[in-house]
Amino acid sequence: MYSSNFVASVLVGGKIVREEGNTVKVPFGGEYCVRLRNKNNTLCIVDLYVDGELANTVGSLVLEGNSYYDVRGFLTKLGNHKKFQFVKLSDNRVRQPGELENGIIEARFYLQKQVERVKEVIVERPIYIYNDRLINPWFQWNQEKFYTDSTFTSPCIMPAGLLSANIVSEPASNYNCNGTNSKCSNGATIEGQQFSEQFETVRLDVESKPTIIRIKLMGYQTDRNTCIYCQTRYERNDKYCKNCGKPVNIMVRE
Description:
- By secondary structure, the chain is mainly β.
- The chain folds into 2 domains: 2-114 and 153-250, no CATH class; 117-148, no CATH class.
- It contains no helices and 24 strands.
- The chain starts with a strand and ends in a 33-residue tail after the last strand.
- Mean pLDDT is 79; it is low at 138-153 and 165-169.
């Protein structure tokens, strides 16, 4: 999804999932991540909401100009980050199955305020140079000094592994409702496996009005012999997916 030089995409198995309007279809039981992209030349911060709750409670994420960052899961101040996992509403791990915000991803981008540049022109006094016949006044060139307001007021966090410059758009994958049960249905995001992530604290002054991008997740049941993470088929006796290495014995089956 694109708006005002900001992009939010859903990735499954490391590939961007194709969008259908504002809807993205992901396999039930699988993990996903959200790619946040800043195509502006200036910094911005992002707050990511999943199922109506702030996913980055560790702090607002800072994106440099022409960069992107993949949010793999819930980022907490304690450091026990948990990956995003999409499940059916009937799953007993869903805390509020009747919540209207279930399945909704909302990214709020705040662009950095444009720093006002104050120009001060300094004209030096004339210097009189004595000559035998006359006195010639000589003026120095006008000098311009620029003063910038470098006050940063909003505490944010800078992802340590931020990717920037020379961004190439990745091709969208063809993940659709093409499993054993081709009917898509609503779902919710729960906490998956734990992972580690490092951040640096910065302070930044940003605009008060955000650019909002909303994505609706819909889930589908995959083939019994298909990996829910990368859509690769595996054999009956395989314990791990040959493509992504995920254990196949944790697949959610009905």
